[in-house]
């Protein structure tokens, strides 16, 4: 998937949320819901992206404990 | 703003004026109370509570409420439950009225069937009078009956038990009679007294036996108090000898008192009696099995029957007093055995009689009370609403002729038509001769209240924000972002898949069963949790997500997204067998891409786990924090744009963005850049510190050997030195820009305005002159208040009517600037709590898992596993899901209140508190 692939998946998720909100909500009164879904998806994407990027070129390597 | 989003800004409010004919006033207020969207302003602030027009009616309502509470008390005592629902068929004809109300008022509902009211408040007052009289009389009667019943029961017990003493003593004495004939001869003197004493001879002989200590088998009772008697028998004897010398007079001095006493007090009673009479008493006790009702209080207690023998009138008085002091009831006890019998029989007879009377009386009282209980809920509702109505009417100013009332109140613009419609209907229903005038008036110089329409989802978040402060009228509402960011930041700290799932299940349960749960009584703590159920639901959902990202389920890594990316180092010769290098240099990544979703499971339990996770979480905290603070600053831009306050945009918003962006925005940029650059080993601390210490010299040029670069790895991109210089310059310029221009420009503006003031004043007033005419009187009276409002908020310069204090404004701006500059650093550091809490959570759950569950499993014994599992479950639920979630909640709360909201939120508004009836349903909390 890579970075952009998953990012695209998040965009799709947001799109799906938007479609769902428009389909179920009252027309013209969904701004709050849209904003909330955008914020939520952005937060989720951001945290994923941070963790993903941190692992792209790690400077520390996993060293196992001998006992295991 | 073209798009109006719910909740983003508070509802627009209008000040409306109502001129209501006096006869329609009551109905109008009641109707508006049902609509629940008008907050009346108090126009009689200067009057004391007694001077107000409807003070009397309010007092009457208070009196009625008192009576209703009186009924509630009696019902609680009688154990009658008060029906909460009204109008469900049997509630009476009037039930429909309020019930329909509640359904309608959910969404601006109005109520227009005033005429359906079956019971009027006056009728109710009369009914309550009669009923409370009746109930108090019935209660008094019942109380009296119960008391005499209790006394009779006790008397009977006394007769039985004390009679038992005497009986036992008699038989005992008879048995001894033969054996002790010879001894009897020796104490003839004593025998002489026997005939004179009040005691029955048999009993006396027993005392004698004991007193002389002649070795005859003592009775059971005397053994109990044996030490008492033995120890003091010389005294006792002297007394008795005295008595004997007294002759006939002595007969009056030796007597006994019988009664009952609380078992708990027996020892103290015994001791006090002994001391008070210097041991010249003889106490006999017999426990009563089971509870006995205390006649005076009606409490069920354990009691003991006592008989005190004493000699002398003085001792008697003392003992009576002691009995009173110990709340020991005294009962008459005839000496004569036949009289005892007779009395006992009489007692039983009366008891049977009394019992049936008492039962009938209680039944009657309960019948009356349960009749009241059926309506009590509705009556409470009615009276409380009535009181609120008169309370509101007390705020109206009354016209001299007393023909009409003038009311003013705030009402959301969106609900104005609904309110005016309700007013018209109320006027028509009250068949007033004149119509009610409803008009909006200018609210210049007054702060409108803040009102948000919330749903059950958003309400809890709005409350979280309002716990900090109510938003200023029409300012950006932090709640909108908080709905997502609050649970999200919580989840960053609480991230664990397993814990999240448990929490989610709990929250879903509460949400699905909210109807059933809310009907049951709940404790204070649970009710708090229950109110936050939607917040908890979102928090738990995000926790599940962050748990997946952290790859932890009860601290155990999950392999949802495939196996680890790390393999044995290909250059290791033992890579196909034991792979020794994994214990020394570590595993290496298979390819350049990272684990697709979340933290690679390989890290769990490795030696380098903590260094890796700490670095990751610390940087993540800073990135999230800087983002959220930036959002906060942009929120302040929205406020400034709405007010058209371009001065603040240039002198606050832009320098703030430059400063925070320059320092920590740049740091965030470097963090990301370091991550995505292969093999970058730049020391970010060094870069940031030397950005200030050696501007422009990124790679420590001249510090290395031979004047070369000392830290070439710190140069991360071309042009870095120049950019850093620019940033440094920007930050240094931003501070004075925040500090000085704004107060100076404000001062200049104020002076200009005042210079031209004398000429433009007329025009200014002309604009809304028509409206002002309506309430010119009002505005004059409010002039004082409004100017105070303006001065109290330092940067509220828009009105500019009051005095302009340059020093004040400058100091305020200075504080604002210093707060921001220092805050930018300390707030960013404050976001590191995300890392700290998340680390603590992960470590705690790992410890519980390894030390409790895994240690038990390794031991192999079933018992150990069961115990280990129990301990682990207890720790997980109690420590992690209970306390850890609370601490994560509090830290998320702090990050929102302090770090986020101080960027834009004024929070000095007035909450909109309309007169509304739905909250005035049923019993008030303190009465139930």
UniProtKB/TrEMBL annotation, chain A:
Key words, A-Z: Hydrogen ion transport, Ion transport, Membrane, Transmembrane, Transmembrane helix, Transport
Transmembrane segments: 34-54
GO cellular component, one term: proton-transporting V-type ATPase, V0 domain
Keyword Transmembrane helix: yes
Cellular compartment(s): Membrane
InterPro entries in UniProt: ATPase_V0-cplx_e1/e2_su
GO MF annotation: an example: proton-transporting ATPase activity, rotational mechanism
Coiled coil: none
UniProt topology in membrane: Multi-pass membrane protein
Pfam families per UniProt: ATP_synt_H
Family stated for the protein in its record: Belongs to the V-ATPase e1/e2 subunit family.
This protein's name: H+-or Na+-translocating f-type, v-type and A-type ATPase superfamily
Annotated organism of origin: Bathycoccus prasinos
Automatic annotation (TrEMBL), chain B:
Major subcellular location class: membrane
Localization terms from the record: Membrane
Residue ranges of coiled coil: 121-148
Region (Disordered): 93-114, 190-221, 779-798
Residue ranges of the TM segments: 488-512, 532-550, 620-641, 653-676, 722-740, 861-881
Gene Ontology BP terms: vacuolar acidification
InterPro entries given in the database record: V-ATPase_116kDa_su, V-type_ATPase_116kDa_su_euka
Annotated GO CC locations: vacuolar proton-transporting V-type ATPase, V0 domain
Keywords of this entry: Coiled coil, Hydrogen ion transport, Ion transport, Membrane, Transmembrane, Transmembrane helix, Transport
Record field: compositional bias (Low complexity): 781-793
Gene Ontology MF terms in the entry: ATPase binding; proton-transporting ATPase activity, rotational mechanism
Source organism superkingdom: Eukaryota
Membrane topology, as annotated: Multi-pass membrane protein
The family this protein is said to belong to: Belongs to the V-ATPase 116 kDa subunit family.
UniProt function note: Essential component of the vacuolar proton pump (V-ATPase), a multimeric enzyme that catalyzes the translocation of protons across the membranes. Required for assembly and activity of the V-ATPase.
Protein name as catalogued: V-type proton ATPase subunit a
Protein's organism: Bathycoccus prasinos
Lineage: Eukaryota, Viridiplantae, Chlorophyta, Mamiellophyceae, Mamiellales
């Amino acid at each position: 998937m890579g970075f952009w692939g998953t990012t695209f998946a998040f965009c799709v998720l947001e799109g799906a949320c938007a479609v769902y909100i428009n389909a179920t909500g009252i027309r013209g009164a969904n701004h709050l819901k849209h904003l909330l879904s955008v914020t939520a998806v952005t937060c989720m994407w951001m945290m994923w992206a941070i963790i993903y990027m941190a692992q792209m070129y790690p400077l520390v390597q996993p060293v196992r404990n001998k006992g295991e | 703003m073209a798009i109006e989003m719910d909740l983003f800004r508070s509802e627009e409010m209008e000040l409306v004026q109502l001129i209501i004919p006096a006869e329609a006033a009551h109905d109008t207020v009641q109707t508006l109370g049902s609509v629940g969207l008008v907050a009346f302003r108090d126009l009689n602030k200067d009057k004391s509570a007694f001077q107000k027009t409807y003070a009397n009616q309010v007092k009457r309502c208070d009196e009625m409420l008192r009576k209703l509470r009186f009924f509630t008390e009696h019902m609680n005592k009688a154990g009658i439950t008060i029906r909460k629902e009204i109008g469900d068929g049997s509630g009476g004809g009037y039930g429909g009225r309020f019930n329909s109300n509640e359904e309608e008022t959910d969404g601006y509902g109005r109520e227009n069937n005033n005429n359906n009211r079956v019971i009027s408040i006056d009728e109710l007052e009369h009914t309550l009078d009669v009923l409370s009289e009746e109930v108090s009389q019935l209660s008094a009667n019942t109380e009296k009956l119960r008391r005499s019943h209790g006394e009779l029961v006790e008397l009977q017990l006394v007769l039985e038990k004390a009679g038992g003493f005497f009986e036992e003593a008699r038989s005992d004495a008879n048995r001894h009679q033969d054996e002790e004939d010879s001894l009897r001869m020796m104490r003839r003197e004593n025998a002489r007294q026997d005939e004179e004493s009040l005691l029955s001879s048999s009993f006396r002989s027993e005392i004698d036996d004991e007193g002389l200590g002649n070795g005859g088998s003592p009775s059971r009772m005397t053994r109990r108090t044996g030490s008492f008697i033995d120890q003091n028998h010389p005294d006792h004897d002297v007394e008795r000898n005295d008595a004997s010398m007294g002759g006939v007079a002595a007969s009056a001095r030796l007597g006994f008192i019988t009664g009952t006493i609380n078992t708990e007090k027996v020892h103290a009673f015994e001791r006090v009696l002994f001391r008070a009479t210097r041991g010249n008493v003889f106490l006999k006790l017999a426990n009563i099995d089971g509870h006995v009702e205390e006649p005076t209080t009606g409490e069920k207690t354990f009691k003991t029957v006592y008989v005190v023998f004493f000699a002398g009138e003085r001792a008697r008085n003392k003992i009576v007093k002691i009995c009173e002091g110990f709340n020991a009831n005294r009962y008459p006890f005839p000496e004569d055995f036949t009289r005892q019998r007779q009395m006992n029989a009489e007692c039983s007879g009366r008891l049977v009689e009394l019992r049936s009377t008492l039962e009938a009386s209680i039944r009657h009282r309960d019948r009356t009370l349960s009749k009241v209980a059926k309506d009590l809920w509705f009556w409470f509702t009615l009276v409380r609403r009535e009181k609120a109505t008169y309370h509101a009417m007390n705020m109206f100013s009354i016209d001299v002729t007393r023909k009409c009332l003038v009311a003013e109140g705030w009402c959301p613009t969106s609900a104005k038509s609904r309110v005016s419609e309700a007013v018209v209907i109320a006027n028509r229903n009250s068949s007033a001769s004149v119509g009610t005038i409803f008009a909006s008036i200018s609210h210049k110089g007054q702060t409108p209240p803040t009102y948000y329409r919330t749903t059950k989802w958003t309400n809890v978040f709005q409350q979280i924000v309002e716990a900090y402060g109510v938003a200023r009228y029409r300012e950006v509402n932090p709640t909108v972002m908080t709905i997502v960011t609050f649970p999200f930041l919580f989840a960053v700290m609480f991230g664990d898949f397993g814990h999240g799932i448990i929490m989610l299940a709990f929250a879903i349960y509460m949400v699905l069963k909210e109807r059933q749960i809310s009907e049951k009584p709940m404790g204070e703590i649970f009710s708090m949790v229950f109110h936050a159920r939607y917040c908890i639901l979102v928090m738990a959902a995000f926790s599940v997500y962050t748990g997946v990202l952290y790859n932890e389920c009860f601290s155990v890594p999950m392999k949802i997204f495939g196996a680890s990316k790390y393999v044995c180092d290909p250059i290791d010769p033992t890579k196909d067998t034991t792979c020794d290098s994994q214990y020394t240099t570590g595993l290496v990544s298979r390819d350049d891409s990272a684990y697709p979703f979340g933290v690679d499971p390989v890290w769990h339990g490795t030696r380098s786990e903590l260094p890796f996770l700490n670095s990751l979480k610390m940087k993540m905290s800073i990135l999230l924090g800087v983002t959220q603070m930036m959002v906060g600053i942009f929120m302040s831009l929205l406020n400034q744009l709405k007010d058209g306050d371009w001065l603040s945009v240039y002198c606050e918003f832009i320098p703030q963005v430059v400063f925070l962006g320059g320092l920590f925005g740049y740091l965030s940029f470097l963090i990301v850049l370091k991550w995505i650059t292969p093999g970058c080993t730049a020391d970010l601390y060094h870069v940031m510190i030397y950005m200030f210490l050696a501007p422009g010299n990124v790679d420590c040029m001249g510090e290395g050997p031979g004047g070369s670069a000392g830290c070439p790895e710190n140069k991360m991109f071309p042009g870095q030195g120049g950019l850093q210089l620019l940033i440094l310059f920007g930050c240094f310029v931003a501070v004075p820009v925040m500090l000085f221009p704004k107060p100076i420009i404000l001062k200049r503006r104020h002076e200009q305005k005042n210079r031209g003031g004398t000429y433009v004043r007329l025009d200014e007033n002309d604009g809304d002159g028509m409206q002002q005419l309506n309430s010119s009187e009002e505005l004059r009276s409010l002039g004082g208040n409004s100017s105070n409002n303006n001065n109290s908020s330092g940067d509220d310069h828009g009105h500019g009517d009051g005095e302009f204090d340059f020093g004040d404004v400058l100091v305020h701006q200075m504080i604002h600037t210093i707060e921001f500059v220092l805050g930018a650093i300390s707030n960013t550091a404050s976001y590191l709590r995300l890392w700290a809490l998340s680390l603590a959570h992960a470590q705690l759950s790992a410890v519980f898992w390894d030390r409790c569950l895994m240690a038990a499993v390794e031991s192999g014994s079933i018992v150990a596993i069961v115990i280990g599992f129990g301990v682990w479950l207890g720790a997980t639920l109690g420590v992690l899901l209970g306390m850890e979630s609370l601490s994560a909640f509090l830290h998320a709360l702090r990050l929102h209140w302090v770090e986020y909201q101080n960027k834009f939120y004024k929070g000095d508004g007035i909450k909109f508190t309309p007169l509304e009836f739905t909250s005035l349903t049923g019993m008030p909390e303190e009465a139930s």
